[in-house]
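Q: What does the assembly look like in three dimensions?
Context provided by user:
Components: two
Sequences:
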Amino acid sequence: MLKNKITGRWLSYRPLSLFQLTIVAFLALVEVSQCAIAEDIDVDDFFAMSPEQLANISVTIASGTEKPAYKSAAVTTVVTAEQIKNMGATELSQVLETVPGLHVSIQAVTNDAVYSMRGMRNSVNNQVLVMLNGTRYSVPYKGSGMQGMELPVEAIQQIEVIRGPGSALYGADAFAGVINIITKKAKDIAGTEIGIRGGSWDTQSIWGMHSNEWLGWDIATTLQYAHNGNDDDRVIDSDAQSGMDRTFGTDVSLAPGEVQNQGERWNAHLNLQRKYWDIDFWAFNEVDGGIRAGTGGALDEEGSVDGENYLADLHFSSEDLIDDWELLAHANYLYTNVDSELHIFPDGAKLPIGSDGNITLVPSQIVGTPLFTEGMLADITIENQVVAFETGAIYKGFQDHLLRINSGFRYEQVSTKESRNFGVSVINGSEVTINGDLTNVSGTEYVFMPDSHRSIWSVSLQDEWQIAKDWQLTVGVRFDDYSDFGSTVNPRAALLWEINQKLTAKLLYGQAYRAPTFLEQKQQNSAFFNGNPALEPETIESIELAFDYRPMSDLRLASNFYYYQIEDLIAERTPENTVPTIDNTDGQIGYGTELEWDWQFHEKWNLKGNYAWQYSRNKDTKRRVAGVPEHQVYVATSWKFLPQWQIQTQLNWIGHRLNPVTSTTNKLKDYQTVDATLNSKRFFGHIDFSASVRNIFNSNGKEVAVNSYQDNLPIASRSFYLETSIHF
Amino acid sequence: MKRFFFILSLLFFSQLNAEENSIEYKIKAGYLYNFTKFITWPENELETFNLCILGKDPFGPILNPIEKRSVKGKPIRLSRIQHADEAKHCHIVYISSLSKAHISTLGVLTIKSVVAKLTVGESKPFTHQGGMISFFQREGKVKLGVNLLSLRKSGLEISAKLLEVAEIYEGEQND
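A: Here is the predicted structure of the complete assembly.
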């Protein structure tokens, strides 16, 4: 497991989780090589570790060992369960916001989170690969997590983030970065925990975790339920319907109105581990989720989303079975199904309709302005399935080399259902009124996306070469072949130099790609955009120089400088007066730096944080990339005022973003949020307690919205939470 | 020839064991240094912070670099002692499982004397017998056992950071 605590960052893992932690392998392949450990890691490194880190190091060489993050072949950030608690985060996004250079904003249409990194951001959040225990769970139709997916944090043991491209190991979409979420295993739970949380906006959540041993298996189970209502201060003043109201003399817009964030979520994990085997099951269900800011730019109070997500995951490692070899196998199956009932425009809306039955804003194309008595409606079901197999081997027989080979197969499938009261084949614009009767277009050529599937073969090779005692070179390459668009090859190299015990330098080069999604290839009959079957993957090439400096055991400083170039960026092209088409565009160039510090300046005080600066420009428009912060600052101070009590305050500042919505005069202003969390651990030996305030000063920051909003979307307002858990 | 291989494999295994040991003891060394930070030590007049190994020393040279470090401005001094009587000046007394005498010495060590001292031992029974902190292994990892009662008696305050990774033994009120 990777560990990141006050005085340093540390990586280690058990081979059982080798697959599951392919991310760690990427960072630290050589650590499985046995001989050098004792000499490699100086006792001073152990002095610098926290009790938690020490307690997680395996003693036996055969079962793998640890390696500091500064020795990993990438720029990484690790956030541990304890840090998550200390920052008072309740959702994955809140944790990720603290990662250098990562900013969480809002996706178009679904309004889910989008993780922009280093100036890279797109409207569906698929330029960052997100994995659970080393397995991707993005749905193939859009290349990111299921609609409505926001992971609660209680079951998370650790989050590992690679900043920078990682396709040479992970394949598609490890483009701007890789996020691996590691859930709690039996050893992390050690007994039973039950917890509850309550807070603003009718937030209630309850969770239970249990671990035990059964027939030689270490078993861990976690179950969480959460419910929340709408944030009543998160109000949208004016939406697309407001504009329609002005034009057509209606008065039906729901704006000003609250962003519809309410919903219920169930989340369950089951993990079984024993020598050689690691088996995971994950279920996430979203019930009656709100449509947030609306799918088409107009508030929707009546619509709802129900989603289910199931992942089964099996890992095998031969561990010490064969001398010099470790054989690995990994199989997984992902099933997701999202049912959404959308009121794209509210009851009583008069909308300008073209001959294709869709909304059009081009005057010459408007056929009529029918009255939608029950609103513009669509019921959409999207079902995704992914089956994947991977086999691999690590060869440890050479003294200075560690070789790894992997091959994989993945099958991706999506099927859709759609019923609506507008659009191609349903209306033609000449109607005077349109009621709420839906026409089922599922399985016809009029559906928004036909059922689709593709298969992907891959093979990857990597060598980690200890050139000299202080020099290490990692080189790798991966070949992927897609049944739809063809093949892509992505190499990477990392040169690591341990200048002295306190200073490490890394030079990194990598190429990566993002595969076009089914939606980008095949969307049709839409007013928003049409897909393009001829799309090529978008590619990135990056170079990076990184330093890690540990002048004292209580202080760690890290910095990096990167430059990247994106080609064939998949984006909308909007020829005049037509629906946009997705195409490969010129791309973008970006460079920047990230600085981090972690300083335990007093026994009871810690100061950590980071500053990220990036400058990215679109090659085509020569304009700065909009919607991404040029500057980002995160600072956290924690004070352990009593042995079991701690308070942490944190500040996050988002600075200098360009507004992508050129029509609005409102600038995307800089904003900062401040949070404070009070924690007590093992009160009376068994009870944890936590109280937190998020966005204390009720900052009214805005995040980028789709074009149809006249203003951008407000961030969550101030909220309070109380939480307690019992361990026994 | 067979014998040669036998010796070779013996050598190999013993080397492996030595490495495993060295990691285990590096972890323990890491913990010992953490004890200096995460335990509140009462003020005293000694000029050094004294870490004592009582009996057989399982660390070998691994622990020596700890002398380059200090606790609240006092340099850490490492001494290897043979008898409990020599432990008077010690802040931390490490009693290796290899030292047979430790059970009888505990009576001496838990008495609050000039310097508040922390007794650290190997294996869980150590804490059950009145020792304050013990190292033990679970799932191939070195964990801590803590006897809260013994600690309380000694007047030492232990940080939650250590308690988080420890298995707590409340101790028996038998005096």
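Follow-up: The two ends of chain B are 63 Å apart (CA to CA).
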